[in-house]
Amino acid sequence: MQRFRPLIFLLFVAFFFITAALVLFYTFGYRFSPERGVFVYTGSITVDSNPQSVSISLDGVNVPENRLGILNSSAHIPGLPPGEHFVEVTAPGYTTWQKKAVVESGRSTEFWNVLLTPQNPEHITLPGTASAIKAYPSPDRNILAIVKKHAGELTLDVYDTSKLSGEQVFSLPNGELLPDRDDGIEWSSDGERILIPLLENGERRYFVVDVGTKASFELPRLTKDNQRKYARWHPRDRNILFYLNEEKLYQFDVSQPEGEAALVRENIETYDISSQYLYVLNASNGIVSRLPISAKPDTSATQVTTAPIALASDGSYSLVVYDDTRLVILESTLGAFWLYNNLGNAASISPMREVLPSGVRGTQFSDDGKKVLYYTDTEISVVFLREWEVQPVREADSTFQIVRFSQPLQFAQWTKDYEHVLFALGGSVKVAELDNRDRRNILDLINFEKPPLQILSQFQDNALYFAEEKPEGQDVLMYIQFPEPTGFLGFGQ
Question: pLDDT, tens digit, for every residue of 33-43?
């Protein structure tokens, strides 16, 4: 027995080193592949979903919860052999998300914006909204300005969604809302006044309503032909608003209704406002410049765009500015669309380019300014204005077509995560993801008998409002909770 002890010791030592090596191999992500007969360096898959409580299956097999590594609400599935895997995310009462994922050795394939839509979302109808055609959110998250049209009369109610009640503050017989591409109703920064642009017998009229007193007055007509347009509130001063008249930009103090409008700048085609600046499109040379928001007629302007655009004499232009390096110009008659995206790259010929010569109906920046969507009657596309380093990685100034249909779509807009777009296709409201790996998931959210009149997102409340076309006397406005609320770092609400 004595002579076998060294051999037994050596066997235990060898077993220890073999076991330790296997443990280290496993720890570092190596797994034995029976098909290949060798150890392979594995990868992993990470899934972050809304809703957070989901089941995940991999290649048709449900992944047990004890195998999932949970961090900040995201699920991590380690130890996967390299190659293609089929991932499915499900939750009771929600649509299913599916995608083929390519796993690479030593890397995690990440899906940070998996969104499941409710199959039968509970909706809450707002009482007292019969004949409503459109709603406009106030700076106060619970207040809406609701426009109604009944028996030829246009009225405006201020509605408290927390109390489910409202009261009328304005009316105009034979009044009509301006087309969506033109001026819209706008709240002052303190939520105490409402600017109401309307058409009456084909003529533009602009009213200011005090919500508290219900008193209203019309903006002064500066010329006989009354070419007022593009009225906007000052972002900080509750008493000041701006508007154009015959290519002249004016500001007006609404606290003095009998006063005169002050000239700010001449030769202006259109403009946009930030918290500090006025951005103006020159009517002569098609160049965008920047002015201090307190500018006078003799204030020097800072040129923003470096290349002019050709302006049609009969065109109707809107300017949407994110900052000095990112802006878009949309001509609403034909739908011509220009994008200015200055990456600070000297090799770039010009940051200003015409994206489409016609057909664009609307555009919207993401909240971080790294993306901008635009849509036509049948397509939605997204331009990545800056490099996107989160999977799937996208290069700066790259364009992706998100959806394309044979029938018209409406109300294209971002969802709260800015990684999905929301739109209506007939009476069906859908959500499409930007992630183009494998295929894009396009999910139904809610269906109506007729196309909705409006879709309004209230991100701060995780609420989505709809105006439906209904028979006379029935309430029109309703909302659903979307997306499902999540708490800080994904824990609770």
Answer: 555 444 455 88
